[in-house]
Design brief:
The chain is of the alpha/beta class. It is about 40% helix and about 20% strand. Helix 1 crosses helix 15 and helix 11 packs across helix 14. The model has no long low-confidence stretch (mean pLDDT about 90).
Length: about 400
C-alpha cells in the first residue's frame, strides 16, 4: 500500500528509535511505501526537502517557529501548518495514490488536509490517538471549559473523530473514555492500538556498568530509581520534589532524573537549592545514551498530574519494561497504567500527591533484588506480548485484509 503519515514530530530519519519511527519501519519491512510529512522550524535554516530511505520518503516541510519563540509567531505558525503541509503534499506527492492516511494527536487541526486527501483518493484514515485535547488542557487549568478556546478545539476534535475510519487508542480506558464522551461515534471503529516499539537487538547488559555509575556519582550498592521523560505540567512534577525531599540523605536509594520540558528549570532550581546527596539531574539524552542509562537503573517512575480526567498512557513505560525495570506510578485515577501494572505484577500505583503510600511502595523495592527481578521479568513478558511494534502493525492492517490477503479498500 501507499501510506501517508502526518506528524508534528520532527522526523528526518526512520533509523532512530521511537514509537513513530519504529512503526514506519515495520510498515516498510512488509513492503509498503510510506510517505511521511514532518516539520522543520525556520530557526534550523533548512528549506523544504525530501529524504528517501528504502521504501520511506520523508517530506520535511519548512514552517515558522512554533517552539522556543514568542506567542505571536507560535500562534501564526500553528495556524499556517495545515495549509503548508497540503501545499507540500500537492507539490511533491501529487502523483501518489494513497491507500491509507495515518496521523496522530497532537494535533487535532489537520482535519481539512485529511479530508481533501481522503476524498480525492477514496483513502482510508487511521487516527493514532495519543492525547485527548482540549480536555487535557482543561484538566490542568490552561483554559476553562466555558472558554472560546475549548469550544473551538472541541469542535475540531469531534470533526477529526468523525472523519477517521478507525481510531487506535493507547489502552482500554482510552477506548472507554472516547466512546463515552462521543456517543455519536460508531464504537466499532474505536479500538486499542497501544504505544509500541521495536525490540532492540543490542539489549546486552553494558560491560562497563560499574564504571558508568562511578562517572555519574551513583553509589553501586543503592537501589536506583529513574524518572525519564518530559518534565512538564502534565506530569504533576511538584510531587517529584516531595519524593526527593522525603527520601533525602537515605543512602540505600538513589534517584536519577533525566529529561527536559517546561518545568526543567524548576527542577534544576530544586537541585541547586537543596543539594540532594542521593539524586542526580540530567538534561534530556540522545536515544542510545538514554537506553544505556535505563539499564543502569532498577525501578522506573511514572508521574501524571492527579487532576486529569482523561486517561494518559505515557510511552516512557516502554523503555522501562523493555529493560526489565518494574514501575512505581503516581498518577490520576482516570488512567489505567497503574491498574494494568498491578494486575500483571510489574508495578505499584498510588495517587499523585500521596507521599506516604508512594514511599510505602518505594521501600518495598529498596534492597529487594528478588522483587525487582521478578517484577521486571513480568513487565518484560507483558511488553513482548502487548507492546512490540508488530502488534500495532497487525492491529492496523487487519482492517485491510480478508482471509489474510491484503485487499485495496
Amino acid at each position: 500500500m501507499n501510506i501517508l503519515f502526518l506528524t508534528l514530530s520532527r522526523l528526518e530519519s526512520v533509523k532512530d528509535g521511537g514509537i513513530y519511527a519504529d512503526l514506519i519501519r515495520e510498515f516498510s519491512k512488509h513492503g509498503h511505501k510510506v510517505y511521511i510529512v514532518s516539520p522543520i522550524e525556520r530557526r534550523f535554516n533548512q528549506e523544504t526537502k525530501i529524504v528517501r530511505e528504502n521504501n520511506v520518503s520523508i517530506l520535511v516541510v519548512k514552517i515558522l517557529n512554533v517552539t522556543k519563540t514568542n506567542l505571536i509567531e507560535k500562534g501564526i505558525g500553528t495556524l499556517l501548518i495545515e495549509n503548508q503541509y497540503f501545499s507540500a503534499v500537492k507539490k511533491h506527492f501529487s502523483d501518489i495514490k494513497f491507500d491509507l492516511i495515518l496521523y496522530s494527536t497532537p494535533p487535532i487541526t489537520f482535519t481539512k488536509l485529511i479530508k481533501k486527501i481522503k476524498y480525492k483518493y477514496n483513502t482510508k484514515s487511521y487516527l493514532l490517538l495519543k492525547d485527548i485535547f482540549p480536555q487535557n488542557a482543561v484538566d490542568i487549568e490552561l483554559f476553562s471549559k466555558k472558554s472560546l478556546f475549548y469550544k473551538f478545539f472541541r469542535k475540531k476534535e469531534k470533526k477529526l473523530y468523525a472523519l477517521s475510519d478507525f481510531i487506535g487508542c493507547m489502552s482500554p480506558a482510552n477506548v472507554e473514555y472516547v466512546t463515552n464522551h462521543n456517543p455519536e461515534l460508531n464504537s466499532e471503529k474505536v479500538e486499542v492500538c497501544p504505544n509500541s516499539i521495536e525490540i532492540k537487538t543490542d539489549r546486552n547488559i553494558l560491560n562497563n556498568q560499574e564504571e558508568r555509575k562511578r562517572q555519574l556519582g551513583i553509589p553501586k550498592e543503592s537501589t536506583i530509581f529513574l524518572y525519564g521523560g518530559n518534565l512538564g505540567k502534565p506530569q504533576g512534577i511538584d510531587f517529584l520534589y516531595d519524593i526527593l525531599k522525603s527520601n533525602e540523605s537515605k543512602e540505600d536509594r538513589f534517584f536519577v532524573i533525566a529529561g527536559s520540558g517546561t518545568e526543567y528549570n524548576k527542577v534544576k532550581k530544586w537541585f541547586n537549592e537543596e543539594n540532594f546527596s542521593n539524586a542526580l539531574l540530567l538534561k534530556s539524552l540522545p536515544s542510545k545514551e538514554y537506553d544505556n542509562l535505563v539499564r543502569l537503573c532498577d525501578v522506573g517512575f511514572i508521574l501524571l498530574d492527579n487532576r486529569f480526567t482523561i486517561p494518559n498512557y505515557p510511552s516512557r513505560l516502554l523503555s522501562y519494561l523493555e529493560n526489565k525495570l518494574p514501575i512505581l506510578a503516581a498518577t490520576d485515577v482516570s488512567t489505567d497504567i497503574g491498574k494494568i501494572a498491578e494486575a500483571n505484577k510489574y508495578g505499584f500505583w498510588c495517587l499523585n500527591g500521596d507521599i506516604d503510600k508512594f514511599n510505602f511502595y518505594l521501600n518495598k523495592y529498596v534492597n529487594n533484588n528478588n522483587l525487582i527481578q521478578n517484577m521486571g521479568i513480568n513487565g518484560y513478558n507483558f511488553f513482548v506480548d502487548n507492546y512490540t511494534v508488530d502488534k500495532s502493525y497487525n492491529i492496523i492492517m487487519k482492517h485491510f485484509k480478508k482471509d489474510g490477503i491484503l485487499v485495496n479498500q
